[in-house]
Amino acid sequence: MARGDLGAAAGVRVRLWDAPIRLVHWLLVGLIAFAWWSRKDHLDWHRWAGYAVLGLVIFRVYWGFAGAGAARFASFVKGPRATLAYLATVPRRTPSGTPGHNPLGALSILAILVALALQTVTGLFAVDVDGIESGPLSDRVSFETGRRLAELHEQAFTALEALIALHVAAVLFYLVWKRTDLVGPMITGRRTFARDPGYPATPRWRLALGVALAAAAAWFVSKGLKL
Ligand code: HEM
Ligand code: HEM
User: Fold this and answer.
1) What is the tens place of the pLDDT at every residue in 173-193?
2) Residue 167 Cα to ligand 2 middle (Å)
3) Which portions of the chain are predicted below pLDDT 50?
4) Which atom of ligand 2 is nearest to the CA of 185?
5) 2, part of any domain
6) In terms of Cα–Cα distance, which of 106, 109, 121 is closest to 163?
């Protein structure tokens, strides 16, 4: 039995995370790091990385409704009762058996997506102190509002850093305390469960539609909402 897998040797190896989920995840990691690195001296690159992040967030939200299995919000967003019940099991050293995000992880994922939306949207309106560098929608607001949004853009990053730190700490907690490797499945897509959750595949056209919508939205925004 592989480390972190569930059930006895009879467990079933299933595809948990589809390719779009994994690609979005690792692209987000790379692009956020790049946006951080380029934030002061390479604002052109910074903005492009930001548009890409915005496109990925739009796609992930779309995929939460149009995708299948563990990608769907409906499969992992739970109410307070289920979340509290899950919380009570966290100290146990047994691997978590949720075939997808557990109810607590779901909250952290939603918070990261909201923080990323805030980060990118405030960036679109941000202006720097001397009004030289700005987002493509900054001409729609006054200079003062652009400055306020630039400050919010910086604060959003502090919140994002805290959420990411918590996220990585949770992944490490699962590895060390629960002996559950969550990173491997986020790379290969596969994990072993006692029972097959029976997640269906998503039709290709839905993927194509989502990619087209997200790319078009990010591009349109990058052009200042002008064709
Ligand atoms: C993942 C997405 C993003 C991250 C993590 C991010 C992060 C940051 C951070 C931390 C700063 C503060 C720089 C400093 O230390 O002075 C900054 C500045 C800035 N960002 Fe972003 N940003 C993102 C997306 C965007 C987007 C989409 C745009 C606009 C298209 C944008 C436009 C700007 C501008 C114009 C500034 C300069 C504001 C100023 O100097 O006050 N950013 N960004
Ligand atoms: C910029 C940094 C990061 C961001 C913004 C981020 C964001 C996310 C998001 C949004 C998800 C949900 C996946 C989905 O359903 O679409 C997720 C899941 C996950 N992330 Fe990250 N992540 C970051 C860094 C990392 C790092 C460094 C690791 C590895 C140590 C990691 C490991 C994972 C794992 C294992 C999951 C799946 C958790 C589970 O099984 O429920 N993430 N992350």
Assistant:
1) 999 999 999 999 999 999 999
2) 7
3) 1-4, 7-8
4) 35
5) no
6) 109
Q: Identify which of 25, 44, 153 to mutate to test ligand 1's pocket (most ligand atoms within 8 A of the CB).
A: 153
Atom 25 (ligand 2) nearest CA: 168
Give the pair of three-digit tokens for residue 159. Answer: 């919140």
Q: How far apart are the CA of 148 and the centre of ligand 1, in A?
A: 13
Read off the pTM: 0.95
Check which CATH number belongs to the domain holding 109 and give it.
Answer: 1.20.950.20
The contacts of residue 129 (CB under 8 Å, 6+ apart) are 147
Give the domain extent around 173: 14-222
**Each residue of 116-153: pLDDT tens digit?**
999 999 999 999 999 999 999 999 999 999 999 999 99
Ligand 2 centroid, distance to 168 Cα (angstroms): 8
Q: In the chain, how many domains are there? A: 1
